[in-house]
Amino acid sequence: xxxxxxxxIIPTYNNAKFLPQVLDAVxxxxxxxxxxxxxxxxxxxxxxxxxxxxxxxxxxxPNRGKGYALSKGFDxxxxxxxxxxITMDSDSQHLPENLPLFVEVISKNPNALIVGSRNLHxxxxxxxxxxxxxFSNFWFVVQTGNKLPDTQTGFRLYPLNQMKGMRPITSRYExxxxxxxxxxxxxxxxxxxxxxxxYPEEGVRISHFRPAKDFxxxxxxxxxxxxxxxxxxxxxxxxxxxxxxxxxxx
Length: 250
Prior knowledge:
Oligomer: single chain
């Protein structure tokens, strides 16, 4: 596994307060960094200009949502030739100290999707995060037959070489759940790893999660995936497994 095969994608929207701290912490790890500026209206553009050409910046307007930002980031990563993409948030929640762990695990499991797993009982963890995660984890098992301790985290390593152009159809936060479900249906191995995250005291961190609207969207997505799991997901898993077994016997 070469580190040059891996890039870091950081979607950002109006997080100018935390963005310099995040980039200053990530850049010493010597990964190529792609920042997707998802229609920010604060000082994000000005801040990013100070880091060029050390980072790749993908700006557009207006704001389109995290799912759209991830799609654009994956497009750029694949066009450059990266085989893997680590996604991180721009609000300083995700700690770069965990990056070597992602590299270590993918080196031993080169076709896997590595999913960071938070300690949902740690200090300052928002109560809505724990509830949403338990809700999502339950339906993820129903939809895929797989079990993960944290299906809501955005700190992940995606195997672009295995996803073969897979992009989220949904444009906002629920896109990360969608990518997990569709990867499971494609029989991409999902490996959870423990990560540390930083949650400041309530009111300090900026969150763009809209509890009522986004939870409703996630609920609709779960209902759709339960239906698709029956007509497509489980049959697809079976055929992927069958084709894999036939290739092993050839």
